[in-house]
Design goal:
Length: 332
């Protein structure tokens, strides 16, 4: 993996107008909705526009082969737009500028590119984005719940740290107390700014971007996402596997944090309060109670079949009583 590179971040209302000054042949990568929203605020004609159809590896490879040469790739949109732009800039070895129009995922900050092969996520590539434009006006045009969703991968530190420590104690997995402390500080920062995140204010947007940046940095340093990825993510992956549907990541990870902090007996009132104040839709409006029940009943089996990391799911039985009480609390 290449060494971590800190991004230069240009932020402000109308900050994306800086794109007009880019020299050379500019390839813009976007999707219908973000491109329309972008053009309404900042009319701009890049040399070439590519609209992303999906994130299949074959699709991004085809785009790279079919698109003309360029000097700079600009990604405008959510995770798929940023990831496709990253892929093209990585393959072509050219300059990359990312303009996220929602802050729901950390794709604008990471070096990895999430693609799908046979409907399964795989990570390819290795390029830390060096230039980021955070245009508050653009981001505030997206539905609030999509931006609030970004808080999930910071709030997940609460349950992930517990699992990381557990794995260290039970299996001898490497553990870094200094990094755990940095992660804890990120969680506290989110807690202090939860209201700003809920309201999607400039301060709330900056908080999410800055916490993603810090998280990506220390996870890259130790070569694992353990500080922010614990059993709450197993719940999220389990729900997707069981239903074969796509959800807002923040909804599923929010549910995971709610459930797993109870299973861990790890201050569940704090974590439920935090995700509620950030506006995560942790009761998952797009899933039914029976689907959640089925996911929890089969969680350990799913984890074993998928070969996922060690966590509270290995050591604590998920009983019918636990599931009943948890669902009652979830819908209260
Ligand atoms: Zn996540």
């Amino acid at each position: 993996m290449s060494a971590y590179v800190a991004p230069k971040i240009l932020s402000g209302y109308g900050a994306a107008a800086a794109l007009k000054e880019l020299p050379g042949r500019v390839l813009a990568v976007s999707m219908d909705i973000p491109w329309r929203v972008f053009q309404e605020s900042i009319p701009w004609e890049p040399s070439q526009l590519h609209l992303v159809p999906d994130m299949d590896l074959a699709t991004v490879e085809q785009a790279d082969a079919a698109l003309p040469p360029c000097d700079v790739v600009v990604g405008i949109g959510g995770g798929s737009c940023c990831d496709t732009a990253k892929y093209l800039a990585w393959k072509r070895g050219c300059r990359l500028v990312l303009v996220p129009t929602i802050v729901s995922v950390d794709a604008p900050l990471t070096n990895m590119i999430a693609v799908r092969v046979d409907k399964k996520v795989q990570y390819v590539g290795d390029l830390f984005p060096e230039e980021l434009i955070i245009d508050y006006g653009l981001i505030q045009k997206a539905p609030k719940e999509m931006n609030r969703a970004g808080a999930c991968d910071i709030a997940s530190i609460h349950t992930a740290l517990h699992d990381w420590k557990l794995a260290h104690e039970e299996t001898g997995e490497a553990y870094h107390p200094d990094v755990a402390q940095l992660a804890r500080e990120c969680l506290e920062e989110l807690d202090r700014n939860a209201h700003e995140v809920f309201e999607v204010t400039p301060k709330g947007i900056d908080t999410i971007v800055d916490l993603f940046r810090r998280e990506v940095e220390f996870c890259a340093r130790i070569g694992t996402s353990r500080p922010e990825e614990g059993a709450e993510h197993i719940v999220a992956y389990g729900m997707e596997h069981l239903t074969r549907r796509h959800f807002l990541h923040g909804d599923l990870v929010g549910l995971g944090i709610f459930v797993i902090s109870r299973l861990q007996q790890n201050d569940p009132d704090f974590s439920a309060g935090l995700i509620r104040r950030c506006g995560l839709r942790y009761s998952v409006p797009d899933a039914g109670a029976e689907e959640i029940r089925a996911c929890l009943r089969t969680l350990r089996q799913f984890k074993q079949d998928a070969g996922l990391f060690y966590s509270i799911v290995d050591t604590e039985d998920i009983t019918e009583d636990f599931i009943g009480e948890t669902l009652d609390a979830l819908y209260k």
